[in-house]
């Protein structure tokens, strides 16, 4: 059963407008004081910053050799993020972090073609495979 999640997903300019701040940490803190429990700052090819309480988590974008078109990548990130939360039901910090990675994976497919055309060809297996590659890429505990 889901409880209420209060997460704001924004890009840099939206964060600045909402907060009136130009520094991303100050902007996130100002937005958190407005009510959301978490702010996800989409940073395109630089990934996502997750702000909650007094903590920050940086998640890189999945590295690709070629980006065809970034149109729709941010929305695809949000869809992948929310889709994973809906599928897993896991609202723990670990679950939210995994959802961020799934969002990044979906966005990485989006930029491989024009608009969201590439997503029409992607299977759940493709997403799971790239998720595992992403995990290996960012695993520093090994």
Mind sketching the topology for me?
Blueprint (H helix, E strand, L loop, with lengths): L6 E5 H8 L4 H10 L4 E5 L5 E5 L2 E5 L13 H16 L4 H18 L13 H15 L4
Description:
By secondary structure, this protein is α+β, with helices and mostly antiparallel strands. The chain has one domain (7-138): Ribokinase (UDP-N-acetylmuramoyl-L-alanine:D-glutamate ligase, 3-Layer(aba) Sandwich), CATH 3.40.1190. It has five helices and four strands; from the N terminus they run E-H-H-E-E-E-H-H-H. It has a four-stranded mixed beta sheet, with helices on both faces. The model has no long low-confidence stretch (mean pLDDT 91).
What is the number of helices?
5
- Count of DSSP strands: 4
CATH topology: UDP-N-acetylmuramoyl-L-alanine:D-glutamate ligase
What is the CATH top level name? Answer: Alpha Beta
Overall structural class, as computed from helix and strand content, comes to alpha+beta
Radius of gyration: 15 Å
Question: Helicity level, as a percent range?
Answer: 40-55%
One letter per element, helices H and strands E, the order comes to EHHEEEHHH
Number of domains: 1
Give keywords.
single chain, 142 residues, alpha+beta, UDP-N-acetylmuramoyl-L-alanine:D-glutamate ligase, four-stranded mixed beta sheet, 5 helices, 4 strands, 47% helix, 14% strand
Task: Give the gist of this structure.
The chain is α+β, with helices and mostly antiparallel strands. 47% of the residues lie in helices and 14% in strands. Strands 1-2-3-4 form a four-stranded mixed sheet, with helices on both faces.
